[in-house]
Amino acid sequence: MILSKWIIRNKIKGLVLQSKKRNHRFISLKDVQSLFLLVDLETCRALAEDIEALKKENKQVSVCLIVQGNEDYRDVNADLVLNIKHDLNWLGLPASDFLDSMKKFPANLFISLTEKESYLTSYLTLSHPAPMKIGINRQGDNIYDFSITPTEKKDIRFLFGQILFYLRTIDAK
């Protein structure tokens, strides 16, 4: 287990170095055409209304859902599902066909709002080609172009609302 964590950390460090070469850019919510949302099941359920509201604003929203084993996710709309128990290799990383599928979802904005930050979510975030990436700052890693720090309450809808507020503010400037 320790060796696999070391390998994953090195893969993430390599992706961080590669991401420095990508075309980073801040965009306003008005300019967002499509966004890719990385969430766990609880977060997906909490943000269902917000996701629908964004779709009504003519935003193409793609949802990548991370589930733990036998969780029942039939009540949520997800474009891509990653099951932690079945879809990861011995290192704890998704197969290359999953990554290829994930990269095919167009997005000029990537938002990671998983309940817990992990090597997996960092790896998925860094693997997606979106030019702007937003997430919750938990480990102090600089993998996001814009990060938000959660309050003790950890209200995910509030955090998502704050992200959208800041994206609208970028438009006002």
SSE order and pairing:
Layout: H1 2-19, E1 34-40, H2 41-46, H3 48-56, E2 60-67, E3 80-83, H4 96-103, E4 109-112, H5 119-127, E5 133-136, E6 146-148, H6 156-172
Parallel strand pairs: 1-2, 1-4, 2-3, 4-5, 5-6
Structural account:
This protein is of the alpha/beta class and 173 residues long. The protein has a single domain, classed as 3-Layer(aba) Sandwich (Rossmann fold). The chain contains six helices and six strands; from the N terminus they run H-E-H-H-E-E-H-E-H-E-E-H. A six-stranded parallel β-sheet has the order 3-2-1-4-5-6, sandwiched between helices. Strand 4 (109-112), helix 5 (119-127) and strand 5 form a beta-alpha-beta unit. Helix 1 (2-19) packs parallel to helix 5 (119-127). The protein is globular and about 40 Å long. The relative contact order is 0.19.
SSE order, one letter for each helix or strand:
HEHHEEHEHEEH
Number of domains: 1
Q: What is the helix fraction of residues, given as a range?
A: 25-40%
Overall SS class: alpha/beta
Indicate the proportion of strand residues. 15-25%
Counting DSSP H or I runs of 4 or more residues, the number of helices is: 6
Kindly, what is the distance between the CA atoms of the first and last residues, rounded to a whole number of angstroms?
A: 48 Å
Major sheet: arrangement of strands: 3-2-1-4-5-6
Count all strands and give the number: 6
Mean pLDDT: 85
Poorly predicted runs of 5 or more residues:
none
State the major sheet: 6 strands, parallel
